[in-house]
Design a protein that fits this description.
- Chain A has one domain: MetI-like (MetI-like fold).
- Chain A is built from 12 helices and no strands.
- By secondary structure, chain A is mostly helical.
- Chain B is an alpha/beta fold.
- Chain B has a single domain, classed as P-loop containing nucleotide triphosphate hydrolases (Rossmann fold).
- Helices cover about 35% and strands about 25% of the residues of chain B.
- In chain B, the strands form 2 sheets. In chain B, strands 6-7-8-3-9-10 form a 6-stranded mixed β-sheet, sandwiched between helices.
- The termini of chain B are far apart.
- The chains are: A mainly alpha, B alpha/beta.
- At the A-B interface, helix 7 and helix 8 of A face helix 2, helix 3 and helix 6 of B.
C-alpha cells in the first residue's frame, strides 16, 4: 500500500520535475504575454498568449455548456424521479458508454458535424466538441456524489414545506464540493486534450476574436512545438506544458477555496 | 399560536404502494391538543399512516391514496389544496435527526424564511423563541453559527423539533422520534411533547409500549394495515376490548 502510494506520488513528482527542468529555462515573461512573432517558430521573439487565451476561452465555455446539461440532468434523475427508475438507468448507462469513447472519436464526430453544418474550424466548434468530451465525465462524477447524499435530506426539506426548487437549492449547497470536483475533473481533461481540438478549433497565431474564428490551444501548442527541429522551440514546448500544468493547478486551488467557503456547514 | 379548532378526521383512508395494500380503510378522529400514540408491530402501516397526513406519498410515484383526510373540514387530498401549506401545518419529526447543511441558526430560520412568515429583523427573535421552546437555547446560544451537524444526536433531534416548530405547524407528527436517542435525550423530548400539547396536536408513532403509556392521551392500535382498537389511554391500557390488543399489550407478540 505504502509502496503503491509512493510510486504514484513519485511518478507525479517525476513528471513535474521533467517539465520544470526542461521548461523553466525557456519560460519568460514574453512567453505568457505575447502572441507568436514572425520568427517564433524558428526560435525567435514571441509567446503563446494565443494558446493560453484560446485554451481558457475554450474550457470555460465548454464547462458552462457542460454544466447546463449535467446539473439539471443529475438533479432530475436523482431527486425528481426515483433513482431506480428505467430512465435513470438508461441515462447512466449511456453516459458510461460515452465516457469510454476516445477523444479522437469525439474530434472526428465534431468535425463531421461541423462539415454538415457548414462550419469552419473555429472556437465555437471546439467548444461544442470539448463539451461533448467532458459532459459524460462531469455528469457521471457529479451523479456519484448526488447518489451518496443522505437519503433523509430531500424528504426532510419537503416535509418542512419546501417547494422542489427550494429543496434543490439546499441540496446543491450540500453537494457543492462534489460538484466542484466533478467540474475540476472535466476541466483537467478538457483543457489538456489535443485530439478533440485538432480538427475542430484549428490553430492560429492570433488571439481568438470570435466564436466563428479558429483558436489556438495549449495542448496543440505543445504538440506543434515539440515536433519542431529547432532546439529553442522544443524547449518552449516544455515551457508551454509547464504553463498548462500551472493553469490547471490554479484553477483547482481557486475552485477548492470557493467550495470550502460555500459549503462550510455541510453535513 | 393559532385559533383553529384542531379538527382532524380520517375517513376510509386506504394506501397502496406498488399494488400492495398497506393501509385498509382507516377511519379515525384525532383529538385536538392531545397526544395520540399510534402503536403496533413493525410493518403494520404506522409510518405509512403518518406519511398520509402530510402528503409525503405524493413524492412516491408508486403510492396510491384513496379516502379523505379532513383538516378543519377540508380534504387535504383535494386538488386545490396547497401541498406546501399542508406540510407547514403538519410538522414532522423524523426517526433520525436530519439537520440541514447549515448553521444552527439557519436551520431554525429555514421554515420562516421559505414561508415568509417572519420579517427579516424579527427572525433572530423567532429563532431564539423556538430554540427555547425546544429546550435547546441554553446549550447552543453561544454556537448559533456553527454547523448544525456538530451538535450531539440528542441536540440535533431537539434542533429538528425547534426547526419544525418555527415553521409554524398546528400538528406535530413524530415518527418514532426518540428511537435513535439515548435515554436522557429521550426523556427530554418526551417532556417537551407533554409541554407542547397545550398548543399543538401531537401524533406519535411508537413501537415502545412504555412510551405510549407515559405519553398518550389517546391510543390507536394498528395491525396489518388496519385499526384494531382506538380509545382514550386509560381505558385502552386497563380494559382493552379486543383479544389481539390484549395480547399485544401483554407482550405476546411485537
Amino acid at each position: 500500500m505504502e509502496a503503491a502510494s509512493a510510486l504514484i506520488f513519485g511518478l507525479l513528482l517525476f513528471i513535474l520535475a521533467i517539465i520544470v527542468w526542461k521548461g523553466m529555462p525557456a519560460l519568460s515573461w514574453d512567453m505568457i504575454t505575447e502572441i507568436p512573432g514572425s520568427g517564433f517558430y524558428l526560435g525567435r521573439e514571441g509567446g503563446i498568449l494565443n494558446a493560453i487565451a484560446g485554451s481558457l476561452y475554450l474550457i470555460l465555455c465548454s464547462l458552462a455548456l457542460s454544466i447546463i446539461i449535467s446539473v439539471p440532468l443529475v438533479m432530475y434523475i436523482n431527486f425528481h424521479i426515483s433513482g431506480k427508475s428505467g430512465i435513470a438507468w438508461i441515462v447512466r448507462f449511456s453516459f458510461d458508454i460515452l465516457l469510454g469513447i476516445p477523444s479522437i472519436v469525439y474530434g472526428a464526430f465534431g468535425f463531421a458535424l461541423m462539415i454538415f453544418l457548414g462550419m469552419r474550424a473555429s472556437l465555437g466548434g471546439g467548444i461544442i466538441t470539448v463539451a461533448m468530451l467532458i459532459t459524460p465525465i462531469m455528469m457521471r462524477s457529479f451523479d456519484e456524489v448526488a447518489r451518496i447524499l443522505p437519503r433523509e435530506l430531500p424528504d426532510t426539506l419537503l416535509s418542512l414545506g419546501s417547494t422542489r426548487y427550494e429543496m434543490s437549492k439546499v441540496i446543491m449547497k450540500q453537494i457543492f464540493p462534489g460538484f466542484i470536483t466533478a467540474v475540476l475533473l472535466s476541466a483537467g481533461r478538457g483543457i489538456g486534450d489535443a485530439a478533440t481540438v485538432l480538427f475542430t478549433a484549428g490553430y492560429t497565431d492570433n488571439l481568438p476574436g470570435s466564436l466563428s474564428q479558429p483558436a489556438a490551444t495549449l495542448p496543440l501548442a505543445v504538440f506543434f512545438q515539440l515536433g519542431s527541429p529547432v532546439q529553442e522551440v522544443q524547449d518552449r514546448a516544455y515551457a508551454s506544458a509547464l504553463i498548462l500544468t500551472v493553469l490547471i493547478l490554479l484553477l483547482s486551488l481557486a475552485a477548492r477555496y470557493f467550495s470550502s467557503r460555500i459549503s462550510k456547514n455541510r453535513l | 399560536m393559532t385559533t383553529t379548532n384542531h379538527s382532524l378526521k380520517i375517513e376510509h383512508l386506504s394506501v397502496s404502494i406498488a399494488d400492495q395494500r398497506i393501509l385498509k380503510d382507516i377511519n379515525l378522529t384525532i383529538p385536538g391538543r392531545k397526544i395520540t400514540c399510534i402503536i403496533g408491530p413493525s410493518g403494520c402501516g404506522k409510518s405509512t399512516f403518518l406519511k398520509s397526513l402530510n402528503r409525503m406519498h405524493d413524492e412516491n410515484p408508486d403510492a396510491r391514496v384513496s379516502g379523505r383526510i379532513l383538516l378543519n373540514n377540508n380534504d387535504i387530498y383535494d386538488r386545490d389544496m396547497d401541498v406546501t401549506g399542508i406540510r407547514k401545518t403538519m410538522g414532522l419529526l423524523a426517526q433520525h435527526p436530519c439537520p440541514l447543511p447549515m448553521s444552527v441558526f439557519d436551520n431554525v430560520a429555514y421554515g420562516p424564511r421559505i414561508h415568509g412568515t417572519a420579517r427579516k429583523k424579527d427572525i433572530a427573535g423567532v429563532v431564539e423563541h423556538h430554540l427555547k421552546l425546544a429546550g435547546l437555547w441554553d446549550e447552543v446560544m453561544n454556537k448559533l453559527h456553527t454547523p448544525a451537524s456538530k451538535l450531539s444526536l440528542g441536540q440535533q433531534q431537539r434542533l429538528c423539533l425547534a426547526r419544525g416548530l418555527a415553521t409554524g405547524p398546528e400538528y406535530i407528527l413524530g415518527d418514532e422520534a426518540t428511537s435513535s436517542l439515548d435515554p436522557i435525550s429521550t426523556k427530554k423530548i418526551e417532556e417537551l411533547f407533554i409541554r407542547l400539547k397545550e398548543e399543538y396536536t401531537i401524533i406519535l408513532v411508537t413501537h415502545i409500549l412504555r412510551q405510549a403509556r407515559r405519553l398518550a392521551d389517546y391510543v390507536v392500535f394498528m395491525y396489518l394495515g388496519e385499526i384494531i382498537e382506538a380509545g382514550p389511554a386509560d381505558s385502552f391500557f386497563t380494559d382493552p376490548q379486543r383479544q389481539l390488543t390484549k395480547d399485544y399489550i401483554a407482550g405476546s407478540f411485537s
